From TrEMBL, chain A:
Protein name: Phosphate transport system permease protein PstA
Residue ranges of domain ABC transmembrane type-1 in the record: 76-281
GO biological process, one term: phosphate ion transmembrane transport
GO MF assignments: phosphate transmembrane transporter activity
Localization per Swiss-Prot or TrEMBL: Cell membrane
SUPFAM superfamilies on file: MetI-like
Organism: Planotetraspora thailandica
Cellular component GO terms, alphabetical: plasma membrane
Pfam families: BPD_transp_1
NCBIfam families: 3a0107s02c (TIGR00974)
Family, as annotated: Belongs to the binding-protein-dependent transport system permease family. CysTW subfamily.
Annotated membrane topology: Multi-pass membrane protein
From TrEMBL, chain B:
CDD domains for the chain: TM_PBP2
Segments traversing the membrane: 21-45, 65-98, 110-138, 164-182, 236-255, 275-298
UniProt-recorded Gene Ontology molecular function terms: phosphate transmembrane transporter activity
Protein name, as recorded: Phosphate transport system permease protein
Classification via PANTHER family: PHOSPHATE TRANSPORT SYSTEM PERMEASE PROTEIN PST, PHOSPHATE TRANSPORT SYSTEM PERMEASE PROTEIN PSTC
GO terms, biological process: phosphate ion transport
Chain's role: Part of the binding-protein-dependent transport system for phosphate; probably responsible for the translocation of the substrate across the membrane.
Lineage: Bacteria, Bacillati, Actinomycetota, Actinomycetes, Streptosporangiales
Localisation: Cell membrane
Bilayer topology term: Multi-pass membrane protein
Gene3D superfamilies in the record: MetI-like (1.10.3720.10)
Entry's family note: Belongs to the binding-protein-dependent transport system permease family. CysTW subfamily.
TrEMBL record, chain C:
Protein name as it appears in the record: Phosphate import ATP-binding protein PstB
Keyword GTP-binding applies: no
Residue ranges occupied by any ABC transporter domain in the UniProt entry: 5-247
Organism this protein belongs to: Planotetraspora thailandica
Organism ancestry: Bacteria, Bacillati, Actinomycetota, Actinomycetes, Streptosporangiales
Keyword Transport: yes
Keywords: ATP-binding, Nucleotide-binding, Translocase, Transport
Any single biological process term in GO: phosphate ion transmembrane transport
NCBIfam families: 3a0107s01c2
SMART domains the UniProt entry points to: AAA (SM00382)
GO molecular function, one term: phosphate transmembrane transporter activity
PANTHER family from the UniProt entry: ABC TRANSPORTER I FAMILY MEMBER 17 (PTHR43423)
GO cellular component, one term: membrane
C-alpha cells in the first residue's frame, strides 16, 4: 500500500471546474446588469432632449401627431391622482387584512384561505385587473371611463403587496409588547392601535411606498379603463384621463421622431418618480433600522 | 369601577369585524374577477361562429364574429417558456453571486442593483425594446438564421427584429429580478453547518454549493421560476409594442410571428366593438386561469418545501 | 498515515478583533490531544485554524505558521481545499447532508476525487462505517437518508464520512456536546480506537472526557472578555489534571471558574 504523505493538491480538473463556475457566476451578474445600464442610459440620454419646463407644464392639447412641443403635464396630474386614490383604497383594506391575519386570524381556516389568496392575488396580471374593472365597473355598472376606474384596478394590484409587507412588519413586533399592554388591562383593539401599529409604522410606510412605486408604472389597466386624452382633466371621477405610463405607450406607438422623443421624456419622468418613491422608502427603512437595533 | 371584570371591552367587536371583513373583501374581489369576466365574456362567446379554444384567427369585430384563443395562447406559452429558459440560469447565477461569491460588503448593494431592474416599468422596457432592442437584434438573429437554420426554431426565410425571440428576451429581462431575488433568499438560508461539512471534506466552493446549497435551494428555485413564468405570461405593454401581432402558430422565433393574450388585449382594445370587448374579456379569462394555475403550483412547491424543511430539522 | 503538527506563534482574527494570540505547540501523531478552557477562550477558533476552516468565515484571517511534518499549511502555494482534504473535521452538531443517503454521505468526500469504481466505494463505505462503529446499525438501510438516524448515530456517520477520505489528522470540535451520555460513551470508545491510526485533536467542555480520552491536554484561557485567548499550558493529561504548573489551570480544573 502506498502511503500518502503531505498535502495532496487537488486535481487540475476540479480546480478548473471551480474556476469555470466562478467565471460563469460573475458573467451571469454582468449579463443581468447590462440591460439595466442600457435602459437607464438610453432613458436618460434620449429623455433629456425633451425633459424641459414646457414638457412638465403643458398638455398635448392641439398638438398634432407630427408636431413638436407638447408635454406630459396632464399625464403627470393623472398619474398622481390615480395612484393617490388607489392607495386610499388599497392601504386601509390591506392594512386591516394584515391585522386580521396577524392579530385575529390565529391560524384558523379562514385566515389560511385569506393568506393563500393574498399570495394568488400577487400573481394576477395587471391586464386582468384592468379587464375586471372594465367588466364590473364600466360595463356592468355603466360607470364612465375615469381616473377613478384606473385607481380601482391599480388598488387590486397594490393590495397583496400592502398585506404582505404590513403582515411582515406586524409579526416583527415582539409579543412582549402586546402582552405588556394586555396586562395593563388595555383592550386588544386599543393595544393594536396604540402599541402594535406605531411600533410597526415606519416599516408599513416603507411597504406602502414600494407598493405605490410598483403600480405607478402600470399601463395596461389604464389603457382599458381610464382611456386616454390629450387634454388636462383634473377630475379623476369623470371622463378619460391620462396617466404617465399610458402617455409613454401612446407616444411610443406613433411612428415619428418627435413623438418618440416625448415618449423618452415621459419614461424619464416616470422613472424619476418611481426611483424617488423607492429612495424615500429605503431612507425611511434605513432611518428606522438603528432604532430597531437600540 | 362598576364594570364587570371580564366583559369584552367596547370597540373590540367592531375592530375585529372590520379587519375580518377586509380579509373577506380580498376573497370577494378574487371571486368577482372570475365571475365578472365570465359574465361579460358569455355574450361574445355566444356570438362566436367558431370554436373559441381552437380557432386561430381573431375577428370579433366582424358582423360574423370569428375568434379563438389558439394562436394567442400558443404565443403566450412559447414566449414565456423561452423567457424562462433564458432567465432562470442567469438568475440562479446572479443569486449565487450575491449569496456566495460577491464580497460581503458589496453583496447587498449589488443585490439592490438587480432589484432595480424590477423597478423599471413595463412600458419603459417596451419603449427600450422598440427603439433599441428590435433594431439591435437584427444582426444576431441573422447570424442564428444563417448558421443554425438546421435547428427548426431558427429557420425561416425572413428574419425580423420584431420577433418572438426579441419579445422573449424582453420578458426574460423583466422576470430575471424576481427569480434572482427568491433564489438568493433560499441560497442565503442554506444551513451553514452543512456548508462547513462540505468544505471540511475538501470540497471546492463549487462542490460545496453543489453538495449543500443547491439541493437545499432547489424547491425555492422551482417556485421562483414558476412565479417568473406567471409574471411573463401576464406581461402586457412591453410585448404589445414588440410582438408583430400575427395570428398564426409557428415555432420560427426569428420570423415575423408572435402574439400573446395580454398583448392582443392592449392592441385590440381601442377599436373593439362590444362583441370585440367581450372577446378580449374571454381571452383575459383564459389568461387569468392559466396564471392562477401557475401561481398555485408555485405556492404548492413552497408548501412542500416547508414540510421538507421540518422533516430535515 | 498519522502526522505531527507543529504550530508556531499563531494569531487568528475576526475582522479587527484578535481572537487568539501567540500560540505555539506540538501535536504528537497517533495520539489524542484535548483542548480545554472556558467559553470564548479561542480553543475552537484555534482548532479551525489547523485545517484552514477559520478563514471560511468572512473577514477572518490567520497569522503564523502551522506545519504538518515539513509543510506549512499557510504557505503561499498551498490550496486550502487540499489542506481540508488532508485534515478532516467533525463538528459540534452532527451535520450529515440531509438530501443524501447514508451511503452517499460516507462516500461524499471520495466522490469529489471521482476515480472510484462502485465496488471500491462500497468497500470504503463499509470499512469507514465499521471504523465508526456504525456498520451493524445501518448496514440494512444504507439507502435511507442520513437525517433519519438518531443524534449519536448521525455524529458517528459524520465521523465515518470524515475518515472515509483517509485524512492524516482528525479534528473534533466538541463532538459530544449535543449528544446523550450513551452516545457520548460510544463516541469516546471510538476515539480510543481511531487513535491507532489517526492523529486526533479534540475540543471539549467536559473535563472528565478530556481526562478519559486524551494523552495530552492543552489549557486555553483569556485575561478578560474581549482579550485574545492564549495557550496557558500543555502537558501530559495526567499531569495537567493532578499537578498543573499554572494557577489558572488549577483553578479551572478544580471548578473555581469557567
Amino acid at each position: 500500500m502506498t502511503v500518502v504523505t503531505g498535502i495532496q493538491p487537488i486535481s487540475a480538473g476540479r480546480r478548473v471546474k471551480d474556476r469555470a463556475v466562478q467565471a460563469l457566476v460573475y458573467l451571469a451578474f454582468a449579463i443581468a446588469v447590462v440591460p439595466l445600464v442600457s435602459v437607464l442610459w438610453l432613458v436618460i440620454r434620449n429623455g433629456l432632449k425633451r425633459f424641459d419646463i414646457e414638457f412638465l407644464t403643458h398638455s398635448m392639447r392641439n398638438i398634432g401627431a407630427r408636431d413638436a412641443g407638447g408635454g406630459a403635464y396632464h399625464a403627470i396630474i393623472g398619474t398622481l391622482e390615480q395612484v393617490l386614490l388607489a392607495s386610499l383604497i388599497a392601504v386601509p383594506i390591506g392594512l386591516l387584512t394584515a391585522i386580521y391575519l396577524v392579530e385575529y386570524g390565529n391560524g384558523g381556516r379562514l385566515s389560511r384561505i385569506v393568506s393563500f389568496f393574498v399570495d394568488v392575488m400577487t400573481g394576477v396580471p395587471s391586464v386582468v385587473s384592468g379587464l375586471f374593472i372594465l367588466a364590473f365597473w364600466i360595463l356592468a355598472l355603466g360607470m364612465p371611463f375615469s381616473g377613478f376606474a384606473g385607481a380601482l384596478a391599480l388598488s387590486i394590484l397594490m393590495m397583496p403587496t400592502v398585506v404582505r409587507s404590513a403582515e411582515e412588519m406586524l409579526r416583527l413586533v415582539p409579543n412582549e409588547l402586546r402582552e405588556a399592554s394586555y396586562a395593563l388591562g388595555v383592550p386588544k383593539w386599543r393595544s393594536i392601535v396604540k402599541v402594535v401599529l406605531p411600533t410597526a409604522f415606519t416599516g408599513i410606510v416603507t411597504g406602502v411606498m414600494l407598493a405605490v412605486a410598483r403600480v405607478a408604472g402600470e399601463t395596461a389597466p389604464l389603457l382599458l379603463v381610464v382611456f386616454s386624452t390629450d387634454s388636462i382633466n383634473n377630475d379623476p371621477f369623470n371622463g378619460p384621463q391620462m396617466g404617465l405610463p399610458l402617455y409613454v405607450f401612446d407616444q411610443a406607438s406613433r411612428p415619428n421622431d418627435t413623438a418618440i422623443d416625448r415618449a423618452w421624456a415621459g419614461a424619464l419622468t416616470l422613472i424619476l418618480i418611481i426611483m424617488l418613491l423607492n429612495l424615500v422608502a429605503r431612507l425611511i427603512s434605513w432611518w428606522r433600522s438603528p432604532a430597531k437595533r437600540g | 369601577m362598576r364594570r364587570p371584570a371580564f366583559r369584552r371591552s367596547r370597540g373590540d367587536g367592531p375592530f375585529r369585524f372590520l379587519s375580518t371583513a377586509s380579509g373577506i373583501v380580498l376573497l370577494v374581489i378574487m371571486a368577482a374577477i372570475g365571475v365578472f369576466l365570465v359574465v361579460k365574456a358569455i355574450p361574445a362567446l355566444q356570438a362566436n361562429t367558431s370554436h373559441f379554444l381552437t380557432e386561430l384567427t381573431w375577428n370579433p369585430n366582424a358582423t360574423q364574429p370569428v375568434f379563438g384563443i389558439g394562436a394567442l395562447a400558443f404565443g403566450t406559452l412559447i414566449s414565456s417558456f423561452i423567457a424562462l429558459i433564458i432567465a432562470t440560469p442567469v438568475a440562479v447565477g446572479v443569486a449565487l453571486f450575491i449569496s456566495h461569491y460577491a464580497p460581503r460588503r458589496l453583496a447587498s448593494a449589488l443585490g439592490y442593483l438587480v432589484d432595480l431592474l424590477a423597478a423599471v416599468p413595463s412600458v419603459v422596457y417596451g419603449l427600450w425594446g422598440v427603439a433599441f432592442l428590435v433594431p439591435f437584434m437584427l444582426s444576431p438573429s441573422s447570424f442564428l438564421n444563417k448558421y443554425f437554420a438546421w435547428i427548426p426554431i431558427f429557420g425561416g426565410d425572413q428574419v425580423v427584429g420584431k420577433s418572438m425571440l426579441t419579445a422573449s428576451l424582453v420578458l426574460a429581462i423583466m422576470i430575471l429580478p424576481i427569480i434572482a431575488a427568491i433564489s438568493r433568499e433560499v441560497f442565503l438560508q442554506a444551513p451553514r453547518i452543512q456548508e462547513e461539512a462540505a468544505l471540511a471534506l475538501g470540497a471546492t466552493r463549487w462542490e460545496m454549493i453543489r453538495m449543500a446549497v443547491l439541493p437545499f435551494g432547489r424547491p425555492g428555485v422551482i417556485t421562483a421560476a414558476l412565479l417568473g413564468l406567471g409574471r411573463a405570461m401576464g406581461e402586457t405593454i412591453a410585448v404589445a409594442l414588440i410582438f408583430p401581432a400575427t395570428f398564426t402558430i409557428s415555432f420560427r422565433i426569428l420570423s415575423a410571428n408572435g402574439n400573446s393574450i395580454a398583448a392582443n388585449i392592449a392592441n385590440g382594445f381601442g377599436e373593439a366593438t362590444p362583441i370585440g370587448r367581450g372577446a378580449l374579456i374571454a381571452s383575459g379569462l383564459v389568461l387569468f386561469l392559466i396564471t392562477l394555475l401557475v401561481n398555485t403550483a408555485a405556492r404548492l412547491v413552497i408548501a412542500r418545501r416547508k414540510e421538507y424543511a421540518r422533516a430535515a430539522a | 498515515m498519522a502526522k505531527q503538527i507543529e504550530v508556531s506563534d499563531l494569531d487568528a482574527y475576526y475582522g479587527s478583533h484578535k481572537a487568539i494570540e501567540g500560540i505555539s505547540m506540538t501535536i504528537e501523531p497517533r495520539s489524542v490531544t484535548a483542548f480545554i478552557g472556558p467559553s470564548g477562550c479561542g480553543k475552537s477558533t484555534f482548532l479551525r485554524t489547523l485545517n484552514r476552516m477559520h478563514e471560511v468565515i468572512p473577514g477572518a484571517r490567520v497569522e503564523g505558521k502551522v506545519r504538518l511534518e515539513d509543510q506549512d499549511l499557510y504557505g503561499p502555494s498551498v490550496d486550502p481545499v487540499s489542506v481540508r482534504r488532508t485534515i478532516g473535521m467533525v463538528f459540534q452538531r452532527p451535520n450529515p447532508f440531509p438530501t443524501m443517503s447514508i451511503f452517499d454521505n460516507v462516500a461524499a468526500g471520495l466522490k469529489l476525487n471521482g476515480r472510484f469504481s462502485k465496488s471500491q466505494l462500497e468497500g470504503v463505505v463499509e470499512e469507514s462505517l465499521k471504523g465508526a462503529n456504525l456498520w451493524n446499525e445501518v448496514k440494512t438501510r444504507l439507502n435511507k437518508p442520513g437525517a433519519g438516524l438518531s443524534g449519536g448515530q448521525q455524529q458517528r456517520l459524520c465521523i465515518a464520512r470524515a475518515i472515509a477520505v483517509r485524512p492524516q489528522v482528525l479534528l473534533m470540535d466538541e463532538p459530544c456536546s449535543a449528544l446523550d451520555p450513551i452516545s457520548t460513551l460510544a463516541i469516546e470508545d471510538l476515539i480510543s480506537e481511531l487513535k491507532q491510526e489517526f492523529t486526533i485533536v479534540i475540543v471539549t467542555h467536559n473535563m472528565q472526557q478530556a481526562a478519559r480520552v486524551s494523552e495530552k491536554t492543552a489549557f486555553f484561557n483569556l485575561a478578560a472578555q474581549g482579550q485574545p485567548g492564549k495557550l496557558i499550558e500543555m502537558d501530559e493529561t495526567s499531569k495537567i489534571f493532578t499537578n498543573p504548573t499554572q494557577k489558572a489551570t488549577e483553578d479551572y480544573i478544580t471548578g473555581r471558574f469557567g
